[in-house]
Amino acid sequence: MRLVVVSAGLSVPSSTRLLGDRLAAAVGRATPGETDVEVEVVELRDLAVEIAHNFTNGFAGKALSAAQEAVTAADGLIVVTPVFSASYSGLFKSFFDVLDKDALAGKPVLIAATGGTARHSLVLEHALRPLFAYLRAVVVPTGVYAASEDWGAEGLDGRIERAAGELAALMRGLSATKRQVRDEFEVVPFAQQLAALSPAERAGV
């Protein structure tokens, strides 16, 4: 299963990236012995210039195009933004503005955010959840907000594990459905079908 973490953190190191990494690791723990989870991280701060150019000229640069393809092909997403002015950051929103409108349709998404105070925790419900509902993603019930005082405190680990378990369950279901559809509708090339026939059967083809 392919899991993509979209991080809008700006600093290095970044608490936003740290939260994304911890969530991704928890998703891996939620699928033990079942399937491998391939994790790719998209750092939006590295794409800021290409995102701006995409708005002005309508073309995605090489790095931005690769990030868009990774997000579109993912079996699940973890999206994490710092809180700016009581909402998601402009960079975070801009990335999803230049993504194809159908890229997230039906895709499992775990929403998360970081901020300096717990007063901004409702950003998950009044900003992020409506955004991804509009994009027709399947947003897991548990969002994760981490204020400065949450790091190392009780409660954050439990929220991370619960949200990651919900995302892993949705990803497993989606992956199983894809395999079933692929198996049922797999097209066998004519040359391969012909090679499987006996000489007498081939003569009559």
Automatic annotation (TrEMBL):
Coiled coil: none annotated. SUPFAM superfamilies: Flavoproteins (SSF52218). Keywords: Flavoprotein, FMN, Oxidoreductase. It holds the Pfam family FMN_red. It comes from the Bacteria. Residues 1-151 form the NADPH-dependent FMN reductase-like domain. The keyword Protein biosynthesis does not apply. InterPro entries: CE1759_FMN_reduct, Flavoprotein-like_sf, FMN_Rdtase-like_dom, NAD(P)H-dep_FMN_reductase. This is FMN reductase. The lineage of its organism: Bacteria, Bacillati, Actinomycetota, Actinomycetes, Kitasatosporales.
